[in-house]
TrEMBL record:
Residues 199-276 form the ACT domain. Gene3D superfamilies: 3.30.70.260, Periplasmic binding protein-like II. PROSITE patterns: ACT, PREPHENATE_DEHYDR_3. Pfam families: PDT (PF00800). GO terms for molecular function: prephenate dehydratase activity. Residues 3-183 form the Prephenate dehydratase domain. This is Prephenate dehydratase. GO terms for cellular component: cytoplasm. NCBIfam families: PRK11898.1 (NF008865). The record marks 176 as: Essential for prephenate dehydratase activity. It catalyses: prephenate + H(+) = 3-phenylpyruvate + CO2 + H2O. One of its GO terms (biological process) is L-phenylalanine biosynthetic process. Keywords: Amino-acid biosynthesis, Aromatic amino acid biosynthesis, Lyase, Phenylalanine biosynthesis.
Length: 281
């Protein structure tokens, strides 16, 4: 039986995506994203499932930085899960949830629900937790405190909390991308309509137009870029690496030639993986 690490505890959004992708596997929760990735890196588990980007709040930087700086795992697949954030409270505090002293949740969930929180419970202290499910579990274990959590409906059911406000995320079409990381090939029994390649590019220092030349290597070959962003190299201020996602569209040979051209220009390319994208309902 496969062992799958996920950002826990049980009933987190990562858990939902993992359970749908691996219904017959042994799912093992880890408290942080680096802990999940490290477990797969050390082969304590077969696969790690971690979030990498959200529609509203953008990239999950801890995942991106760990992949670039520390991990040798490959992205084997991408799961896209609709995200519905709900506000929940311990049953004994249902009538007084607007007087809650703290709002607990993962930083991404708090950011996705910021407008509702500042409008409805602006006096509550906002406190980040390792995951949305962790926040729900904490409230369940501390009924004496008037606390609220932003989490999934499954978390409310799992930890016997009462939902007092539904769908508090700022966008109706809120989705999160999760990546499956492993040393081995992973195939899912699902229909995929897209295939992507993710890579990082580090440019040579002080070369005018270097980024333009990198993008031109893809452009004139008519390779479809779906994402580009920069992240600090964590060396000195002002130095960055670039993260690029491409749609494959049966252009593997052209993409490989583009990578070779970038390397001839002095760029350093790290390919994180070529993988299928699976939407989950």
């Amino acid at each position: 039986m496969m062992k799958i690490a996920y950002l826990g505890p049980s009933a987190s959004f990562t858990y939902l995506a993992t359970q749908l992708a691996f219904p017959n596997a042994e799912l093992i929760p880890y408290p942080t994203i680096p802990a999940c990735i490290q477990a797969a890196e050390e082969r304590s588990v077969d696969v790690a499932v971690v979030p990498i980007e959200n529609t509203i709040e953008g990239p999950v930087n801890v995942t991106l930085d760990y992949l670039y700086h520390q991990s040798n795992l490959s992205i084997q697949a991408e799961l896209v899960l609709p995200i519905h954030q709900h506000l929940m409270v311990h049953p004994r505090h249902v009538s007084e949830w607007k007087k809650a002293t703290k709002v607990l949740s993962h930083p991404q969930a708090l950011a996705q629900s910021q407008h509702f929180l500042t409008t409805e419970i602006s006096k509550a202290v906002v406190e980040s937790t390792p995951s949305t499910a962790y926040a729900a579990e904490f409230i369940s274990q501390h009924p004496e405190q008037n606390l609220v959590a932003v989490a999934s409906k499954v978390s409310a059911d799992e930890y016997q909390l009462t939902i007092v406000a539904e769908n508090i995320q700022e966008l109706e079409n809120n989705q999160t991308r999760f990546v499956l990381l492993s040393h081995q090939n992973v195939e899912l029994p699902r229909i995929s309509h897209k295939e992507k390649i993710s890579m990082s590019v580090t440019l040579p220092d002080n070369v005018p137009g270097a980024l333009h030349k990198v993008l031109a290597a893809f452009s004139w070959r008519q390779i479809d870029l779906c994402k580009i962003e920069s992240r600090p190299l964590k060396t000195v201020l002002g130095e960055y690496f670039f993260l690029i996602d491409l749609y494959v569209n049966n252009q593997q040979t052209l993409i490989q030639h583009a990578i070779e051209e970038i390397e001839l220009l002095g760029g350093v390319v790290k390919v994180f993986g070529c993988y299928a994208v699976y939407p989950i309902q």
